[in-house]
Model the fold of this input.
Amino acid sequence: MPMYTREDAEDFRVVDRWDGGVGWQAFPEEGGHRTSHAVRADGGVWLFDPLDAPGVSDLYADLGPVAGVAVFSDYHARDAAAFAVRHDVPVTVPTGVDRAADVIDAPVERADSLAGFELRRLNPLRAWHETVAYRERDGTLYVPDFLAGGTYAVGDERLSMRVFSRLSPPRETFADLTPDRILLGHGEGIFTDAGAALDDAIAGARRRFPRALLTNGPTELKAMLDALR
Done:
């Protein structure tokens, strides 16, 4: 199985569920563990970095009408245009996420905030541009690329990050956040002691770099090559 599957999905698997939304993987067996989310927000439901699959629209239908589709990372254009057409909404792309905006075949709106979420730009090693979204009122944090579930974890980490991002973790981006849940563009979300998991990932990043390089280096190289296809 490749890191990122390019064929049409045949099914999907629910990986996250909470009172305000749901997350699914259209290709649960792929190495990259791409995860999409439907999040109840101001004005309706927002679809975060969505991937399509048969019947997936029924998964979030009871959350309310779809208010918009949002793409938070340069390499997450995914199926945003298809969802935008289906629900007759534009695709919102945060300021600075330019590559995604250029390749989406649907009306695009640029934004510096989104439906009750604060947006913070993140440029890991200048290799890609992404935006994290945080809603203080319920402690919901969405990280599209920089952090992942167990994909690149070492030791007992619950949140992982790419090998070379560990050399200079963006502490200032996350320092004042106190999430109750962390939704991820890759992997299952964190719903228990989310703040502690985030603090551990950032604080231990450099210390765990040698082990991460040895363990995950080849896998990450494959992921990067697959993402550029």
Remarks:
- The first strand starts at residue 13 and ends at 18.
- The CA atoms of residues 4 and 226 lie 6 Å apart.
